[in-house]
Write a structure and sequence with these properties.
Aminopeptidase, 26% helix, 2 domains, alpha+beta, 15 strands, 4-stranded mixed beta sheet, 2,3-Dihydroxybiphenyl 1,2-Dioxygenase, domain 1
Length: 293
């Protein structure tokens, strides 16, 4: 039998708080009790989940809830539509949207507070506990592994795009030279290489190229984490945009980048082609977030 995690919190109004969490988070009442040694309570959570929230109220000596701004419940939802719908549900239920104490939670999430001051973050990301993002890692030398990751990740394009990917003409020496000109971004789990991208610091943007995620690590928020690293680089150097290109045929890629906040801004053709072969996508950074160069 697997373990269960219970988070217990005293509240000022048990019925109102229970309704708030049911409607806002979409949880159900898993159990309840009344006047158990002077305590009333309700347990809320997702059916079949490995965790639940217990809300309690003491009839005789009620406690005044005293949470801090860093006492958080964090709900990870990588799908953009599910994340937006959950945020809307939190607002409709009566949660107040607040600024997070830690600005990290504002990058890809929204923070909400209940009437007692308890906070819930709805984060548009997947939780990857051992994921580490490295920017221009010193001493990196495993170019063969990087090339293998890129080739595996780009293999599905073969026969679908015209002209073929520029990766077809690249080897370890070309990757090494590209990393010397640009910033190499790596996603690792311990020694395992899970994802990569190149970030080119241009005059008005950070240009992202060769974004790849290992097939075994997809749908875990790794591409999103690499985009976040590029965004941090853009902010640090005062660049207002991220830009990248994907092929016109790869509609699924265009949809993925749209979910990450990118918008189509241009079409272009490779040399020798009279029709568009690539789509340029741009993500505008929030105003006031860019630092001076």
């Amino acid at each position: 039998m697997s373990a269960q995690l219970r988070i217990a919190r005293p509240v000022a109004d048990l019925a109102a708080s229970a309704r708030l969490y049911r409607e806002g988070l979409g949880w159900v009442a898993l159990g309840s009790f009344q006047d158990h040694d002077g305590f009333d309570g309700v347990m809320l959570g997702p059916p079949g989940g490995g965790y639940h929230l217990e809300l309690t109220r003491c009839r005789h000596h009620p406690l005044t809830p005293a949470p801090t701004a860093e006492d958080l419940l964090v709900l990870y939802l990588p799908d953009a539509q599910r994340w937006a719908a959950r945020c809307d549900a939190m607002r409709r239920a009566g949660f107040a949207e607040v600024s997070p104490f830690n600005p990290y939670w504002a990058l890809r999430g929204r923070t909400f507070a209940d009437p007692d001051g308890y906070r819930v973050v709805v984060q548009q990301a997947a939780w990857a506990p051992a994921l580490r993002i490295e920017v221009a890692p010193e001493g990196f030398s495993d170019w063969s592994a990087l090339l293998a990751l890129l080739r595996e990740s780009f293999a599905y394009m073969q026969g679908r795009i015209d002209p073929p990917s520029s990766l077809d003409g690249m080897g370890e020496s070309e990757l090494r030279a590209k990393a010397a000109r640009e910033r190499l971004l790596l996603a690792r789990d311990g020694p395992r290489l899970l994802g990569c991208a190149f970030a080119d610091l241009r005059e008005d943007c950070v240009w992202i190229g060769k974004l790849a995620v290992a097939a075994s690590a997809r749908r875990q928020g790794i591409a999103s984490a690499l985009i976040d690293a590029a965004e941090a680089l853009a902010r640090a150097h005062g660049r207002p945009y991220l830009e990248l290109q994907t092929r016109i045929e790869l509609l699924e890629n265009q949809a993925t980048f749209a979910a990450l906040g990118f918008e189509r801004v241009a079409l272009s053709a490779h040399p020798g082609y009279s029709h568009a072969t690539s789509v340029t996508l741009r993500k505008r950074l929030a105003e006031g977030g860019a630092a001076s160069a």
